[in-house]
Amino acid sequence: MGFAHNNVLHNNHFRKDWQRRVRTWFDQPGRKLRRRTARKAKASTLGVRPLTLLRPAVRGQTVRYNRKVREGRGFTHAELKEAGIGRKEARGVGIVVDHRRRNLSEEGKKINVERLQAYKTRLIVFPRKASKPKKGDSTGDDLKAATTRLALALPESIPAEAPRKITSTERDFKAYKTLRTNRANARFEGVRKARAAKKEEEEANKKK
């Protein structure tokens, strides 16, 4: 590349005092070890408490990710009510509650209710005073049962289905047409009801 015209040649000073501005990361291995020992110390103080809090199984957002099942923020009030667990009680036994979440399907609600019930059956609540157990505390042989600190596994996103032949009913079924018809019926339901009510009223007035 040549130079044209009577211009000043570039002489940029990019390497001025770079030592003062550089950020080093030489303490990273030491920090890693420190964090690990802190986690171990915390786990030992927790005793037999679960490593993580219980969260609901929810679907990922948007069409791209809704095949995937992941952990949600917290359980809804409806799910807790159906499982027979109070809101305050849930927080005390490691269940996260999310007052903003809503149940949009019975299937999703059922999965989370079953999840709560499974957790409840496995839960052992040690009383603060063995001589004076409070309401909800475990007693007797439950306190001697084997414990685990692992969280409940998420359910399968899509249950495996064995291969089978397509039936004649399934082959003849028009999925797109059915969806469009149902959508149209839902859309015009109010208009049709109003029209039918108006017609009945007119007929009633004629009879008078």
TrEMBL record:
<dbReference type="GO" id="GO:0006412">
    <property type="term" value="P:translation"/>
</dbReference>
<keyword id="KW-0687">Ribonucleoprotein</keyword>
<dbReference type="InterPro" id="IPR001380">
    <property type="entry name" value="Ribosomal_eL13"/>
</dbReference>
<dbReference type="Pfam" id="PF01294">
    <property type="entry name" value="Ribosomal_L13e"/>
</dbReference>
<feature type="region of interest" description="Disordered">
    <location>
        <begin position="187"/>
        <end position="208"/>
    </location>
</feature>
<dbReference type="GO" id="GO:0003723">
    <property type="term" value="F:RNA binding"/>
</dbReference>
<feature type="compositionally biased region" description="Basic and acidic residues">
    <location>
        <begin position="189"/>
        <end position="208"/>
    </location>
</feature>
<dbReference type="GO" id="GO:0003735">
    <property type="term" value="F:structural constituent of ribosome"/>
</dbReference>
<protein>
    <submittedName>
        <fullName>Ribosomal protein L13e</fullName>
    </submittedName>
</protein>
<comment type="similarity">
    <text>Belongs to the eukaryotic ribosomal protein eL13 family.</text>
</comment>
<keyword id="KW-0689">Ribosomal protein</keyword>
<dbReference type="GO" id="GO:0022625">
    <property type="term" value="C:cytosolic large ribosomal subunit"/>
</dbReference>
